[in-house]
Design goal:
With 785 residues, the protein is mainly β. Among the domains are: 164 residues, no CATH class; 70 residues, no CATH class; 91 residues, no CATH class; 90 residues, Immunoglobulin-like (Sandwich), CATH 2.60.40.1220. Helices cover 2% and strands 50% of the residues. The protein contains four helices and 63 strands. The protein has a five-stranded antiparallel beta sheet. Strands 1-54-53-52 form a four-stranded antiparallel beta sheet, with no helix packed on it. Strand 34 and strand 35 form a beta hairpin. The protein is flat, with a radius of gyration of 31 Å. The N terminus is likely disordered.
């Protein structure tokens, strides 16, 4: 008989059977704005994740509101009493208090590519049709038209559908393909088609394609045509033009733009542009290596101000009279890997980089990341001396002195004003590496820690001594970053170091000879090393976290074994070097993305927080499972093991769920969020089992039941669960129903949901009996109607 070991943390995969999914406020930090509407002093920027930013005082203060739990907000309409928002999933919501609170109205039954409002309702475009709906969102008429997936064209221009519809002279107009237009009456009956190429003589040396940007005023219908003049196989010259017509008979050129990526609008009978050479787009972030003109997506004009919105929370105001710029928000070089530093009640510094290094772009927020702006002063001398090209290996923020430290190859940069400017100090002429030096050592994390003890800093730096041989140096630097002590270590790739003095060190490292994960300790400055724990080669260190509970510090380590497959968490007591296995869970059918998300560990105020799969655990006693609590993430939610940091009542996380997918589907591009729990924390009971021929049953829900009840069960694979004797008994032991009213919805080969249809029984107490091999379980159920 095959033996199966079920560890306590199988409960992680099954907590849904004990409680409803918990409520969380999921707040996206990075939003790509797709549109903006402004009236008087009210400005609303809207876009991804069903989210919008609202200001009622012309940009002085902002609120972030989540209208929908998924999708992209495509359009917003409002009058004196009501706001209406529509997203690309076909959802409609309304607000009656200026956008602060929203009510779901309906779903249109189809995804949406474009929307406009006209006097008799709304005109919409989906992938396979055009259709009209009434003001109360009832379907009026459909017209079958396939809208192909738009792809990148010449000069890297990618057209989009949101502005491909128009209402002009009591007609509905849709741009179909390659500057071909279909004209309809207000009942969506076709009137005529119009082709730009058949109506205008054009230069055959150009290749033309559509811009899908339509606009109107009282006299004209406007459309964009994009052209490339092909000079040779590798060179072309781009020309954007706006044409207009009153009657679709006489077509006249209106404006030549000469710049790609141009966005135009006709507002109050005037032409406004957003172009590549716009100074305000180039200057927005102050410094970067990115083409910022690609980030502007839309604009509005009000109070003599052009309000520009775009990708990565871009909001800026341009004074039309004097061209002065006011940057509201811009987070272009954001990182999905690095944790911010809290510098005030609602203030944070956000950093840029990846798993390997820090880059020199720093952003500050004073409103909990509703808006963010770059902080570095480009007029400062150090900036002009090459700061934008620096790469940093170490970062440290001194909370007591409010000083920010970066260490690059040859010097330390110190800022006393939260990154606005830095002073530079050389580090004894020594050159540190600025990138990951040990790419082949997967058991070593790429960003080593920096420890501060009183006024000293301890860091570690490694290099290849010769083939397959590595050497590390542990440095002690004084408060002025003068190296006053160092220690050479051979054969260890160190990524964590804990020291009490200059002789005593506890380290985590990848063994330089066999590449295994190890925890070592020395009390004689590295002359002798004690192995506290050596992991097998099959176990890979995914992450670690220094935690503190009840004034006792631990190093918590997470390892994955893909062969089993399993995850485990261990802890090393940093005062006495005691090693303890905290927990481990194994599954034969893991989530396909489980190693990407991994196990996250965080620590704040004597509490430890652990994430795995769809569960967030809380505990103030790491080793007593009876004191563990948990919450279930919504919509198949997953928190990445990094970044994962608690700030007060919320977590800063890399996160994804069914409604908030990873960018372009790649797990490595999980977006960053504030995650705020709203429900009480649930209890977790310790259940550790190591038996053969097992049957494990979790408590049923809902309790009390009305029409059905379900519970999650795990069974022994050596026994056919479908042949088990399963029946329902009343409190007198009388069998009232057999398997005809019971089904098992299998999740995999060893677990599934047992569901009993109890709609035909009277209110009372019942027992579901399961005979599985030599095991018998009774599940107590309460029915109350």
């Amino acid at each position: 008989m095959k033996k199966y070991i079920v560890y306590f943390f199988f409960i992680i995969a099954s907590l849904n059977c004990q409680a409803e999914v918990n409520k969380f406020e999921i707040i996206p930090i990075v939003i790509n704005f797709r549109g903006v509407e402004a009236k008087n002093d009210t400005i609303i920027a809207f876009g991804d994740f069903g989210s919008m930013l609202i200001s009622y005082d012309f940009g002085q203060n902002w609120k972030q509101v989540r209208v929908f739990d998924k999708g992209i907000i495509l359009k917003l309409y409002w009058d004196d009493t009501t706001m209406v928002a529509l997203n690309d999933a076909g959802d409609v919501a309304s607000s009656y208090n200026k956008g602060l609170n929203w009510e779901f109205v309906t779903n249109l039954g189809d995804s949406v590519l474009a929307i406009i409002k006209y006097p008799d309702g709304y005109f919409l475009r989906s992938r396979n049709k055009l259709f009209t709906i009434t003001d109360d969102f009832k379907l009026k008429k459909e017209f079958q038209l396939y809208s192909k997936v738009l792809s990148i064209n010449i000069s890297f221009y990618t057209p989009k559908y949101p502005r491909s519809l128009a209402y002009f002279n009591n007609e509905l107009i849709a741009e179909a393909d390659s500057s071909n237009f279909i004209r309809f009456d207000i009942n969506l009956s076709p009137l005529d088609t119009f082709s730009f190429f058949k109506s205008v003589l054009f230069d055959t040396s150009y290749k033309y394609f559509t811009g899908y940007q339509l606009d109107t005023d009282l006299q004209y219908f406007y459309f964009q045509v994009v052209a490339d003049h092909i000079i040779n196989d590798s060179t072309s010259k781009r020309l954007d033009s706006i044409y207009r017509t009153k009657d679709f008979k006489i077509i006249e050129p209106f404006e030549k733009l000469y710049q790609p990526y141009s966005i135009y609008k006709i507002i109050n009978d005037k032409l406004y542009l957003l172009q590549k050479n716009s100074k305000y787009l180039i200057d927005t972030t102050k410094f970067s290596n990115t083409d910022y003109y690609r980030y502007g997506n839309d604009f509005s004009v009000v109070n003599d101000t052009q309000i520009i919105v775009g990708a990565n929370k871009l909001i800026e105001f341009v004074n039309i009279k004097d061209s002065s710029i006011r940057i509201i928000s811009e987070f272009t070089n954001w990182s999905r890997y690095l944790v911010p530093e809290k510098i005030g009640e609602s203030s944070f510094l956000f950093f840029t980089g990846d798993q390997f290094r820090y880059l020199p772009f720093i952003y500050r927020t004073d409103d909990n990341a509703i808006t963010l702006k770059p902080v570095v002063d480009i007029k400062n001398g150090f900036y002009k001396s090459g700061y934008p090209w620096f790469i940093f290996r170490f970062k440290y923020f001194d909370e007591k002195e409010n000083k920010l430290y970066f260490i690059e190859q040859t010097r330390v940069l110190i800022s006393e004003n939260y990154g606005i400017s830095f002073i530079s100090k050389w580090i004894n002429g020594y050159t540190f590496l600025n990138g990951p030096e040990f790419g082949g050592y997967k058991n070593a994390q790429r960003l080593p820690n920096l420890q501060k003890i009183n006024d000293e800093y301890i860091i570690t730096e490694g290099f290849f001594y010769k083939k397959d041989t590595v050497r590390e140096t542990i440095y002690n630097l004084d408060k002025d970053f003068i190296i006053n002590n160092f220690m050479l270590v051979t054969g260890k790739v160190i990524d964590y170091i804990f020291s009490k003095d200059t002789n005593t060190f506890l380290i985590h490292n990848a063994n330089g000879w066999d590449r295994t994960s190890e925890v070592n300790f020395t009390s004689d400055k590295g002359i002798n090393w004690e192995i506290i724990k050596k992991y097998p080669i099959t176990e890979t260190c995914k992450n670690f976290k220094e935690i503190e509970i009840n004034n006792q510090k631990y190093l918590a380590l997470v390892h994955v074994n893909k062969d089993e497959p399993s995850f485990r968490i261990d802890a090393v007591n940093l005062s006495n070097n005691q090693f303890d296995s905290v927990y481990k869970w194994t599954t034969n059918n893991p989530d396909s993305n489980w190693t990407w998300f991994g196990v996250g560990i965080e620590n704040e105020n004597n509490w430890v927080y652990i994430t795995f799969q769809d569960t967030l655990f809380y505990t103030n006693d790491l080793f007593d499972k009876s004191k563990w609590r948990y919450q279930i993430l919504p919509n198949n939610g997953r928190i990445r093991n990094f970044p994962f940091k608690k700030f007060g009542d919320k977590f800063f996380v890399g996160y994804a769920d069914d409604n908030n997918p990873s960018t372009r589907g790649y797990l490595a591009e999980t977006n960053i969020y504030w995650l705020k729990p709203l429900d009480p924390i649930n209890s977790v009971e310790e259940n550790e089992i190591e038996v053969q021929n097992y049957l494990y049953v979790y408590p049923p829900f809902p309790i009390p039941a009305k029409n059905y009840v379900k519970t999650l069960i795990y069974w022994d694979l050596s026994i056919d669960i479908d042949k088990d004797e399963i029946a329902v008994y009343n409190i007198y032991g009388v069998k009232i129903e057999g398997k005809e009213k019971i089904r098992i919805d299998k999740k995999n080969s060893y677990s599934g949901w047992l569901v009993w249809d109890c709609s035909d029984v009277e209110s009372g107490i019942y027992f579901i009996k399961i005979n599985h091999g030599t095991k018998t379980k009774y599940i107590k159920v309460m029915v109350d109607r």
